[in-house]
Amino acid sequence: MLAWLVSAALAQTPAELADQLTGRKQGPERTAAERAAVFAQVIESTVPGLSSDDANAKSQSQSLLERVVFHAGRPGGEADRQAAVAALLPLAAKPGARFCRQQLLLELRLLGRADAVAGLVALLADGDEVVAQSARMALESNPTPEAGRALIEALDKAPADRRVAFINALGHRREAAALAPLAKLIADPQAAGAALAALAQIATPEAIDALVRARQGATGAARAAAENALLVAAGRRADQGDAAGAGKLFDDLYRNAASQDVRLAGLRGWALASGEKALPALLDLLAKDAPEARVAARLARNLAGGNVAAAYGDKLTGLAEPVQITLCGALQERGDKAALPGLRALAGKADAPAGGRAAAVTALGALGGVSEVELLLPLESGPDPVGGATRQALTRLGGPEVTSFLLKQVATGDAARRTHHGGAARLGAGQRGAAGAGRGAEGAG
Amino acid sequence: MSDSPSITRRGLLRGCLAVGAAPLFIPASARGQAGRPAPSERLTVAMIGIGNMGSGHFGYWLGNRETQLLATCDCWENVRNGRRDETNRHYAAATASGTYKGCTAYRDFRDVMQRDDIDLVCIAVPDHWHALIVIEAAKAGKDIYSEKPMSLTLVEADAMVRAVQRHNVVFQLGSQQRSSHEFLFACEMVRSGRIGKIKNINVNVGGPSWPRSFPNQPTPPGLDLDMWLGPAPWSEYNEERMSGNYGGGWRQVRDYSGGGMTDWGNHHYDIAQWGLGRDLSGPVEIIPPNVSPNGKLTMRYDDGITTTHGGGGNGVLFEGEHGIVEVNRGHLRTDPPDLLKVPTQAGEVHLYESRDHHGNFLDCVRTRNKPICDVETGRSTITVCHLGNIAWWLGRTIRWDPVKREILGDPEATRWMDRPRREPWRLEV
Description:
- The complex is a heterodimer of chains A (445) and B (429).
- Chain A has helices spanning 2-10, 14-21, 32-45, 47-51, 55-72, 78-93, 98-111, 114-123, 129-141, 145-157, 163-173, 179-185, 192-202, 205-215, 220-239, 243-256, 260-274, 279-286, 292-298, 308-315, 321-334, 340-347, 354-367, 373-376, 386-396, 400-412, 415-428, 432-442.
- Chain A is mainly alpha-helical.
- Among the domains of chain A are: 1-157, Leucine-rich Repeat Variant; 159-258, Alpha Horseshoe (Leucine-rich Repeat Variant), CATH 1.25.10.10.
- In chain A, helix 5 runs parallel beside helix 7 (98-111) and helix 19 packs parallel to helix 21 (321-334).
- Chain A is elongated, with a radius of gyration of 33 Å.
- Chain B has 2 domains: 9-176, Rossmann fold; 177-208 and 261-417, Dihydrodipicolinate Reductase, domain 2 (2-Layer Sandwich).
- In chain B, 30% of the residues lie in helices and 15% in strands.
- Chain B has helices at residues 9-14, 52-63, 77-92, 109-113, 130-139, 154-166, 181-191, 225-229, 260-263, 265-276, 357-367, 375-394, 411-414; strands at residues 43-48, 67-73, 104-106, 120-123, 143-146, 171-173, 198-203, 285-287, 298-300, 306-309, 316-320, 324-328, 331-335, 398-401, 406-408.
- In chain B, helix 5 (130-139) packs parallel to helix 6, helix 6 packs antiparallel against helix 12 and helix 7 (181-191) packs parallel to helix 10 (265-276).
- Mean pLDDT of chain B is 91; it is low at 1-13 and 15-34.
- The chains are: A mainly alpha (445), B alpha/beta (429).
């Protein structure tokens, strides 16, 4: 009876079956055995093309194979997925053309679950290095715990020159169960870098302990690798909601890391994990004659807290010019109007550095409103960069009341001020688009 | 804080120790061309990848008075050595002695990252390499100008954002349309409501890449094939497969690129996102051509606005309740036509303005502020492109959570969010 059913199911042309398996046409209801048979037939039909030297034949077979696999992987298509995996595995295991086996394993990477693990494990030792590599990739993408366990076992058995591939795979999957073998490999100079990176991805408290131990007493490149791994792991902890744990790690890196880049990264991480509690320390750092000052300034953009913008703004006038420029940009990006008093103070401070004042004016143009006009008008005719920044800012200030205010000033002011205000009103009414529109229109085809 | 054991030049740039060097802190675009800064004040550059796109960047850095090109890096020996020699000849012409040998050629980008005297890297390699090189550069504290498309996968884009932010480096994506006036003005008109509520945006770019087969050919002398392939699956050499030409080449091969969807898509979907004000978000439903009633890849945002792919417009066509704005390079058209004669008014939306994409990057390297197409913006745009590809490849509708950055209810589609890498390469997320 079964044989008859299978035979009946197969009594269709290959094109008809392909249409059904790719979802183009509705096929008949099939039993598990019939389904297995039709998948085996269609998938096997691609092997000659995939094994051919003819590029067109290869492409056609690739395309059909892929469409079958993608359709089998659709939500609700579990029976088809299983049938496709069952058909792919034996073909991938058969000795044959490398390209063909590589393609079959690529499809298993997209489709395989627990049902594919044993077959893929067998291929990890394949004599063709590319096939073995493709099997590892298929296991790496396999979302089941069985695949993770298989990769841990494979790492244990792998020769020294193949270990990095499995370490990377376990790190990418964040296999917490791989902690012990990975920690052990930190002592292996050939595998240490990969093992540290994998532990950083896993980032459980135990993985972090292993990283901390790896850092102790390490020097040179080994210390740098351990500290970079700790930095990544701290970020993972923060993402997982462990702000306290992340903050502690970041703080330690900020204070003790060998490289300046990692120390600055630690500072940033610590501040973001700490939120507004970090504000006093960051404000102190702004005045420091060191790279920390500009990292602290950039943090004004996204440090959490309702008082951040105002507190940063209050510090603006007393800072070095480069820090002022960075901080004004960060406050502008933050978009919090609480920074306006500080920005106004800097913009209006005649003896402040020109670059800082220009940055403050630019930020006022983005954040402010009609209240900025009186401050900005006298600056409009000044030398660059403040004058130029002011003219730009006046075009950006929001609200029709800005233009009304400017026009009123023109009507009531003395001759000199009328000149300035008239210019500002023109700018306030908008200047940017006209020339640009002309340019755009010229290019119209 | 202990004394710094290794204060680098980049550290000085990031800090304020160099406050006396005033030109460093006045944006280049505001400074004019009054003399070239002294060598000690120039930003030092390494070019990584100097093929088709890289050639344009190479010319920019070499010709820029504020930068000094110190390194060329490419898998092709003739390319890296040829560009090195060209660089040395260029600088030699400006020296009294007529000699200069300060530019070095590298086969492996990791050796470039070891150099502490390089401030910034410009990356113009095939797409499958973007994420790994960007992340290594960020770890080395280099500021980064990277060609688009930003990444090969969604997860790579996330990893790039983390690395750039974690290491406090400046990142500019080569979506240079953001620095062109017609695109800026078009998006300001749309964002300011001149054509009313947006209903649909037609984005006219190519389709996805596909798996492609090529006959094996002998690897030419001077090409490091293993390095060219890098994290991608092993393949034999083929001239067409590894070519950078725009009509074919690696851009059409899925192992290395997302095809027209991510290549030109990274430009034009970027403008669609900018015009919608969705720089940090994206669509929630992606309907492939074989499913969409209109026969086009269609993406739907959470407010009902859609984008449709291909045909029907020149570049990016915003369709609103009261008119249209159509924009492409050197092309701006509106209906009503008079819309474009009215400049952006006070009170309308004024977007981040940059008139020079490289110059904006250099300004931000000095100010440490956000470039016009920073890493987060780049991630959002490439996310749109990747989702379009995934839905198109699979032939089924994808649902996407732009906040959690998850594909919903489709475990096999979720596998397309990243790809395994050939050893020894790994992605540091």
